[in-house]
Amino acid sequence: MIPTPYSIEKEVGIDYYLTDTKGIGGRIKTVPNDFVVEEIYDPEKILKIVSNRINKIYSIILVKKLNWDTHTLVREIARRLGISKKRIGFSGTKDKNALSIQLMSCDVTKESIEKIKIKDADIKFVGYSTSPVKLGNHIANRFKITIRDINHESDICDTVAEIEREVDDKGGFPNFFGMQRFGTIRPISHKIGEKILKRDFKGAVLTYLSYENNYEPEDTRYARRYAKEEDFKNALRYFPHHLRYERALANHLVRYPEDYIGALRDIQLGVRMMFIHAYQSYLFNKIVSKRIEEGIFNRVIEGDYVYFKNGGIDKVNLNKVKLYENLIDKGRSSITAPLIGYNSVLNDFELKVIEESEEIKGEDLIRSFKIKELPELSSKGIRRPISIKAHITSSKIDDALSLNFLLDKGSYATSILREIMKEDPLKANF
């Protein structure tokens, strides 16, 4: 266990590295093909492809994209087809700064699909299906990642193998939510979520509009300073058009001063939900960090909730500790931590972590996730495994290192990379 020296990680609840082996440093995403992610589907459950189009049948398309985040590309495909983006289905949201391969669906003909030509997006018709692609349909993601600018004296493949051995001895990689969940350049999504839960809607909007960093253009920083002074008219003048959410918030407040709830509703639901999810993720990271600190990262304690591969969850009592330790060692179950919501039940350890670190405490925190002012943002909460397994294949190519591994959906490749690299997230290009 090594404390992270990087304040940006601490801001999002990531306080430790699990392993003691020195990292290899380096940087990802130096060139476009350095980060490749491909969705993996269960072949027995994959959408049934049929040969002829009938009523209510969906075109399945294979999308290979670069420099497009999933939501932006979906909007562009919908625009080209002249349809609502709601008619396009996809399983997972993929980052802009990656070469990603995923399935999508749309209730249009093969001929319509084949007419679409979009720069940096290869769109191929696969077949027709009786079902659309839905969120969460894929079961895993396969990653091929190249690390460059490595500054390491020892053999880098040996170092990766040593880190992997150390991780295996400790029960797997920590299943942290990566910086992308919070905003790598502006890690504020969880702070906005916390303000919403405190019913400080003005604070939530102003945080989104006015939080500055030195990586943004001068005009954007001017806009944020005007927003901080609540001069939304001038802020709107300076916000560039690609910052559409900032512009939507500022524009609403110019037309309807002090209507901060209405302003939040002027940005799409998925983005608003992201704020709540980010705060849940921050609390999850804090709990995982505390388990690492106290030496119980993958050690079962009374009151833990254990997840099974079939989706079941069981609470551990004192008599079952040894049983679950054996199941975890065999890879048949996992210790979980909560993504807290209004239906969550926390054990004593989890309550202690919240009491020590957060302004909203225990039961008040749980109740705060039922948001009567913005009911569409209310969240029941779920549990998530705190550790992940990843069999890594590494190979040295000139002065770079190529890594290949598979992760369950919802887990972050950067949780693997940070243990191997132990680099500043900004320098590493996470």
CATH class of the largest domain: Alpha Beta
The fold-level CATH name of the largest domain is Pseudouridine synthase
Uncertain runs are: none
The CATH superfamily label of the largest domain reads TruD, catalytic domain
Average pLDDT over all residues = 93
| Strand tally | 17
Alpha-carbon distance between the two ends: 21 Å
Strand coverage percent: 15-25%
* CATH architecture assignment name of the largest domain: 2-Layer Sandwich
Name the shape in a single word. globular
Return the domain count: 4
- What's the story with the biggest beta sheet? 9 strands, mixed
What fraction, in percent, of the residue positions are helical? 25-40%
- Gyration radius, to the nearest Å? 23 Å
Q: Which descriptors would you attach to this protein?
A:
single chain; 430 residues; alpha+beta; Alpha-Beta Plaits; Hypothetical Protein Yqey, Chain: A, domain1; 4 domains; nine-stranded mixed β-sheet; 17 strands; 20% strand; tRNA pseudouridine(13) synthase activity; RNA binding; tRNA processing
Please provide a written account of the structure:
This protein folds into four domains: 108 residues, Gyrase A, domain 2 (2-Layer Sandwich); 97 residues, 2-Layer Sandwich (Alpha-Beta Plaits); 79 residues, Orthogonal Bundle (Hypothetical Protein Yqey, Chain: A, domain1), CATH 1.10.1510.30; 116 residues, TruD, catalytic domain (Pseudouridine synthase, 2-Layer Sandwich), CATH 3.30.2350. Helix 11 crosses helix 13. It starts with a strand and ends with a helix. The protein contains 16 helices and 17 strands. 36% of the residues lie in helices and 20% in strands. By secondary structure, it is α+β, with helices and mostly antiparallel strands. The chain is globular, with a radius of gyration of 23 Å. 39% of the residues are buried. The longest helix has 25 residues. The strands form four sheets. Strands 3, 4, 5, 6, 7, 8, 9, 16 and 17 form a nine-stranded mixed β-sheet that branches. Strands 12-11-13-14 form a four-stranded antiparallel β-sheet. The protein has a two-stranded antiparallel ribbon with strand order 1-2.
